[in-house]
ABC transporter, ATP binding protein
Amino acid sequence: MITLKEVTKFFGSFKVIDSISLNVEKGEFFVILGKSGSGKTTLLRLIAGLEKVSSGKILISNEDVTDLPPSKRDIGMVFQSYALYPNKKVFENLMIALENSEINKKDKEERIIEISKQLEIYHLMDKYPAQLSGGQQQRVAIAKALVKRPKVLLMDEPLSNLDVQLRYSARKLIKKVQKEFNITTIYVTHDSNEALAIADRIGVIDKGRLLQVGIPEDIYNNPLSKEVASLVGNPPMSFVKIDGKIIGVRPDNIIIKDNGTYEGIVSNCEFWGSYYLIYIDFIDNEVKAISKERIKEGSKVKFDFISYKVFSND
């Protein structure tokens, strides 16, 4: 459905995207995960046609769209800021999205009514964006992208402006809408928990390079590099050198017990609701473990690794 062939982007002499090749299947919910400055939004803008590639090819439905403007790519886009016109009512915002469509006015109105009912915003048609909650604005932004019935939906950090309490219901809505419309979706985020929760597959990007692509379980359980491991999971993976090997271990794979093989000193203890996150100084490194009980800072603790990932050898 969407194919990238060795796509590269320079800003001046700085390489922002480094020869990325990727295939996204029809109807797939594909998440691009990366920290700030990794190139994830630039990659999305290249697919949208908002930036020109320096080299490489972009295909949508086997059509080369590399040199086509955004209006010719049959895409819908939801921006981080929602991109709603503040002086236009919801109905007018949706109508603007169809202004370049060849369908007649009656069909446009019918399409707007249909999508607004599906996204439960029909009762907001006469409201201005400033009169809407953050969650309602997001629904309008999604409707604005989908009312054109595009082949592809591109979403750039659409939850970042929402309160934490709203994010769970919002991502559930996005996943529900995506499945109902069976629309091929590329979704950009820096939040690994968000990526793991909603993606069919995840592509991890760092410094403009695509480091790993896989289903959420593979990305979480079998990261191919320390860079991927450090980006995925909250709390993140700890790294430590043992017997000449660099290993990565997640907090839930460290068990604190009196007869443990290893020993360290507790440097910090944080209450995370259902458990305590314990920071342990260990062999010039720090590992994080989970405990059901609070452990005093400065205490010596013994522990074992239930499982771990080997990343390199000396």
In short: Residues 30 and 186 are 5 Å apart (CA to CA). The longest helix spans residues 164-181. The chain has eight helices and 18 strands. Helices lie at 40-48, 90-97, 105-118, 134-146, 164-181, 192-198, 216-221, 226-231.
